[in-house]
Amino acid sequence: MAAGAALVCCSGDKLLGGPQAGLIVGRREAVAVARAHPLARALRIDKLSLASLEATLRLYRDPERAVREIPVLAMLAADEDALAARAGRLAAAIGERAQVIRASAKVGGGALPLLELKGPAVALEGEPEALAAALRAHDPPVIARIHDGRLLLDPRTLTDEDVPLVARAVVG
């Protein structure tokens, strides 16, 4: 908008970490034209999603609270020391087949498709494809990534409470 666009479309879930919702922002006249289009009625957001979107936007009024309560913001803003400590706890709980390494992960998604975040990760010894399949089949499933022939668990995508659950899934 600051660059002069009349309308900007974005995704509520990817941009805000809130409910799935297509958002259109822009100049009043341009928004009015979009709103008057016959598809606007068919594509409008339902009341529950609208309430969720409003609640998410209210969280952004207090940035510290937003980082605490919106998971994707917490992941993006995670402190390097906290990530290193979480990775260390996870590796220790798994045992000798786990090692803390430095890695780079892509944020992905519509809002930040090219952003890479460097930080600690837990690399597991063993056949990465087989390990990944076993973790996906676990209840609850654990999603890891394979990079440079190693299976990596990213502490950025875990909470402290997740660490023992993930360790149990790996150890079996």
Structure description:
By secondary structure, the chain is of the alpha+beta class. It folds into two domains: 7-72, no CATH class; 78-171, Aspartate Aminotransferase, domain 1, CATH 3.90.1150. The protein contains nine helices and six strands. The chain has helices at 12-16, 28-36, 38-43, 47-59, 63-69, 71-76, 80-94, 128-137, 162-171; strands at residues 7-11, 22-26, 98-108, 112-124, 145-147, 150-153. Strands 3-4-6-5 form a four-stranded antiparallel β-sheet. It has a two-stranded antiparallel ribbon with strand order 1-2. Strand 3 and strand 4 (112-124) form a beta hairpin. The longest helix has 15 residues, at 80-94. The chain is elongated, with a radius of gyration of 20 Å. The mean pLDDT is 92.
Quickly list its features.
172 residues, alpha+beta, Aspartate Aminotransferase, domain 1, 2 domains, 4-stranded antiparallel beta sheet, two-stranded antiparallel ribbon, 9 helices, 6 strands, elongated
